[in-house]
Amino acid sequence: MKKKISINDIARELGISITTVSFILNGRAQEKRISENLVKKVQDFINEVDYKPNSLARSLRTGKTNIIGLMVEDISDPFFSTIARLIEEKSYQNGYKIIYCSTENDTAKTRELIKMYSERHVDGYIIVPPEGIEEDIKTLTASGKPVVLLDRYLPGIETDTIVIDNLESAYHATRHLIDNGYKNIAFVTIDSLQLQMQERLSGYEKAMNEARLPQYVKEIAYNSAQSVPQITAFLHRKKNIDAVFFATNYLCVSGLKAISGMGAKIPQEIGVVSFDDYELFEMYSPAITTVAQPAEQIAEHAINLLLTRLKKNTAPKKVERIVLSTSFIVRNSSIR
């Protein structure tokens, strides 16, 4: 096998110091006032011998791997997959690679994944946090690793966060159903204490309290295989329900299956609104009214914040919490 070329070999062949070669390969030639002729000489030689730097050795020298760890709830979910794609594009343009994974809202799994990323010495983290990982995030930030939280925040954790206005978005969606004549509106959500889910519930409750209407809340375990029969049973028990506001798009998909199985007509017999848009909702008949989250803005803010933190020559800035607005897309499922 052909021997792999090392920095030592380059230095010996060109008659210069190993340190000089290292500065040139790490882009510090101008900083160290190394002549353009010498830089060209080194670059020409490494092209000629097809030199490939050892990424592990380089990370040990520079303290950087140029890798970002992205952890989302479910990478197959349209909302999170869109965000992941956009973050990956922007990262690549700035010289970083992405390693991403799904936590499945599982605290133990998330801890294992954080440990794996830490062992790989990733430079920074973008995390959609499940419940119970506050101490893990504190440990990361205390070690000097920048962390940006997406979609939800953790009280008492001082780190950058990108969220949406969940409460007002859910309030507005519920008011829309009330204004269109629906009086017995149910809210179907996941059984979770995560703040974004609690805020969506609070928005629903606020609108229903203002209108002095009865509240019907159904909680379903995250990623439950029984979500369709559970929603079906709930609607059979509460026969007076005339509209349902689903707290996530995947719950809405299950809800549409349940409603279809019952033979109920949308929107005449039951109105439907979903939090989180989904491309199939526009093609469904009737098209589904949704609260659409600004995925592009979320991704843009997240990666820009992290890249700013990763620049060592950037002075420390105050932790940022960015709250973005949603779009309410009215379609036929909520107007009768």
Your description of this structure?
This protein folds into 3 domains: 7-61, 434 Repressor (Amino-terminal Domain), CATH 1.10.260.40; 64-164 and 296-325, Rossmann fold (3-Layer(aba) Sandwich), CATH 3.40.50; 166-293 and 328-334, Response regulator (Rossmann fold, 3-Layer(aba) Sandwich), CATH 3.40.50.2300. The protein has 336 residues and is of the alpha/beta class. The radius of gyration is 26 Å and the shape is elongated. Strand 3, helix 7 (134-142) and strand 4 (147-150) form a beta-alpha-beta unit. The chain has helices at 7-14, 18-25, 36-49, 55-62, 78-93, 107-119, 134-142, 166-179, 195-210, 227-237, 249-262, 279-283, 295-310; strands at 67-72, 97-102, 124-127, 147-150, 160-164, 185-190, 216-220, 243-246, 271-275, 289-292, 321-324, 327-329. The protein has a 6-stranded parallel sheet, with helices on both faces. 36% of the residues are buried. The mean pLDDT is 91.
Key terms:
alpha/beta, 6-stranded parallel β-sheet, 13 helices, Rossmann fold, 6-stranded mixed β-sheet, 336 residues, 434 Repressor (Amino-terminal Domain)
